Amino acid sequence: MLSLTWNAPREAFNDSNQKLFEGRSVDDAFIHNTANYKFCGVEILPTFSFFDVMKNPQINNDIESLKQQLSQIFD
Questions:
Q1: pLDDT value of residue 75
Q2: Are 52 and 5 in contact (CB under 8 A)?
Q3: Is the N end or the C end of the chain the one with fewer CB atoms within 10 Å?
Q4: What is the mean pLDDT of residues 6-29?
Q5: Domain total of the chain
């Protein structure tokens, strides 16, 4: 499972009007990592991202979201 911290807002991804990622998802941006893991036989778990951590941090909400995702995966 990739746990990623972004200074970019969530809206910077999956939107073809955005210039930097040009509609790519978080998973698209890290395909080079997950492709290597898959090649080695690692099970790929859903990615978790913290967004906009400098301008608009939502630490408590993000921690709760991470806990919820982990409980869905491991419970």
A1: 84
A2: no
A3: C
A4: 95
A5: 1
